[in-house]
Amino acid sequence: NAMLSWQRTAFHFQPQRNWMNDPNGPLYHMGWYHLFYQYNRDSAVWGNITWGHAVSRDLIHWLYLPIALLPDMWYDINGVWSGSATLLPDGKIVILYTGDTDQHVQVQNLAYPANLSDPLLLDWVKYANNPVLVPPPGIGSKDFRDPTTAWIGPDEKWRITIGSKVNKTGLSLVYKTEDFIHFELNHHYLHAVPETGMWECVDFYPVSTHGSNGLDTSVIGPEVKHVLKASLDDTKEDHYAIGTYFAENDTWVPDNPNEDVGIGLKLDYGRYYASKTFYDQHKMRRVLWGWINESDTEIADLKKGWASLQTIPRTVVFDKKTRSNVVQWPVEEVESLRLSSFEFEGVEVKAGTVVPLDIGPATQLDIFAEFEMELLASEVIGKDNEGCGGGAVDRSALGPFGILAIADDQLSELTPIYFRVSSTTNNSTSTTSFCVDETRSSKAPDVSKLVFGSKVKVLSDEKLSMRVLVDHSIIESFAQGGRAVITSRVYPTEAIYGAAKLFLFNNATDINIKASLKIWQLNSAFIRPFPFDHSL
Ligand code: DQQ
Asked: Where on the tree of life does the source sit, at the highest rank (predicted)?
C-alpha cells in the first residue's frame, strides 16, 4: 500500500513485512553482527513467534536471512520466545531461549549453530533433550522467561538469570551450569523489588567506572559496577539501576535503594521495550538494542502489513560525571550515513517565537543542538516540579524550548523535543526536564499521542544539549550526551517527504534562547534480503 509506505523508516531495522518484537541473541561472529528478533511470519500482529535473523557488517546495513528458530517442537510449539546468546571461550556459541510448550508452560531451551565456521550462522540445532529448565517450585508456569547471556564465576561455573515474579514482587532467579544442559538453582535471587510485577527480558552486565570501553559480561573487579535492567510487564517500560554484584552468592545491591530497578531510572522514556545488550568484542563496546512498538491500532498495522522497529543500536557506558546513571549514544557507524551538513551559530529565538531552519528535506537527520538561556528579568523563577508540563503548549518562565521535528510549514503537525527548566536564580539550583510531546504529531485518528520525559542532570559546566535522530516516523532524542533518552513513534500525515521541516521554538515567557546547531542529512541504509533467500 503506497499510501502507507512513508511510515517506513530509512535507517532503522525492521523486517520487510509482518510483526516483530523483542531483539534476541545479538552477537558478533567472524566479521558479522547478528540480530535475531521475535517475528511472526504470518501476520502484522503478535503470534506464531519465531526467531527472525539478520546480519550486518556495521550495525546499520542489514541482510535478512532465513528464520533461525521455528516453533516446531512440543517444548516451543506455542512460540520461540526471547533469549540470549553466549560466546564460550573455546569459540562455541550457545543460545538459551524460552519456549512456550504445548501445555503453555514457559521452559528454557538450548540451541547452537550447526556450523560454527559459517559466518552467517544460517543453521541452528535444538538440543535433543530440551527443555533444559522448567519452572521451579513456587514459580508460576507463565512467569519464567527470557534467559540472559551467561557470565562465568570465580568457580568456573556459568551463571544465567531469568526474570519472574512472586505475587507482585518482580525478581530474577540465578542458575549455575557447567554445560548449559544441567542447571542448579541458587537459593538467593539476584535481586527482587516489591510491587514491580513480572520482570521480562532481564539484562545484567558490568560497566567500567573509570575506563571508556565496554566490558565482557563476565568481568568483575574493583572498578566495575553492574547494571540490572528489567522490562516491566505491567507498565511496558524498561527500568534499570546501577549497583554492586557480589560474586560469592550471586546477589546484586543497588547503589541507591531509592532508585532501585523499577522505581527509578528508565533506559528510555519513550516507546521502548524488551531491550538487550551484547558485548561487541570487535570494537570493545557494549551495544544496546531496543524494540520500538507501534502506537497505532492493530487494524492499521494489518492494513500496512508490518509492525514495529528496532532502535538504532546504542553504546552504553557508566556516566563518569554523575556516577549515578548510564549514558547511551548511537553507535558511531550511524555517522557513515551522513551527507551534507548545516551549521547554525547562536540563532536567537525570542520568547514565544518559532524560527525555521532552512536545511531542505528534514525526514532523515542527525541533529546536534546546544541552547543558552538569556533571562529577560534580573530574577526569574520557574514553577517547581512541573516536569514536562501538559506538553509544549504549556508555557512557563523557563520553558519549553527546543526543536520542532517532522513539522509542516503550517505547523499543523509537529513533534517538539524540548527542555523545561523549573527554577533558576543566581543562587538556587535548577531542575531540568527533557521531553517529547507527541500530542500534535499526527492528524491521524486512532493513534496514541503522549507527552514523554524525565528530569535530566545538567552539571554546572554543561550547556543544555540534545542530539536527535529523525527517520520519517521515528525520533530518537538524547539529552546531555545520552543521560536521558526518549524514543518517539509518530505518524505524520502532512509532514511527510518534502513537506517535513525543522524549526526552533521557544515557548518560555521570561527567556530568549540562543541555539547553535550542527545538522546532517542522513542517507538511507540498505536493509534487504540476502540474494539466495526467496522464502521471505
Ligand atoms: N516478549 C516475548 C517474551 C518476553 C516478551 C514473547 C517481552 O519472551 O517476555 O514474544 O516483550
From this structure: Eukaryota
Across 51-78, average pLDDT: 98
At a CB cut-off of 8 Å and minimum separation 6, what does 294 contact?
Answer: 300, 301, 307, 308, 489
461 belongs to the catalytic site: no
Q: How many CB atoms lie within 10 A of CB 462?
A: 13
Residue 90's pLDDT band (cuts 50, 70, 90): very high
pLDDT at 3: 45
Residues 6 or more apart whose Cβ sits within 8 Å of residue 257: none
Mutate to test the pocket of ligand 1, among 20, 37, 38 (most ligand atoms within 8 A of CB): 38
Q: Which three cell numbers stand for residue 122?
A: 544460517
Query: Which ligand 1 atom minimizes the distance to the CA of 163?
Result: 9
Report the alpha-carbon distance of residue 466 to residue 365 in Å, rounded. 13
- What ligand 1 atom has the least distance to the C-alpha of 46? 10
Nearest C-alpha to atom 7 of ligand 1 is from which residue?
Answer: 274
Using one digit for the tens of pLDDT, what is the confidence trace for 281-332? 999 999 999 999 999 999 999 999 999 999 999 999 999 999 999 999 999 9
pLDDT band at residue 238 under the 50/70/90 scheme? very high
224 CA to centre of ligand 1 in angstroms: 29
Q: Round the average pLDDT of the chain to a whole number and report it.
A: 95
Cβ neighbours for 355, distance < 8 A, ≥ 6 positions apart: 347, 348, 349, 503, 504, 505
CA 78 to centroid of ligand 1, rounded, Å: 12
Q: Determine contact, residues 252/204, Cβ cutoff 8 Å.
A: yes
Confidence band of 7 (pLDDT split at 50, 70, 90): confident
Which ligand 1 atom lies nearest to the CA of residue 231?
7
Whether the ω angle into residue 131 lies within 30 degrees of 0, i.e. cis, is yes
pLDDT band for 382, please (50, 70, 90 cuts): low
Cα separation, 486 vs 478, whole angstroms: 7
Inter-residue contact 308 to 46 (CB < 8 Å): no
Alpha carbon distance 133, 114 (integer Å): 22
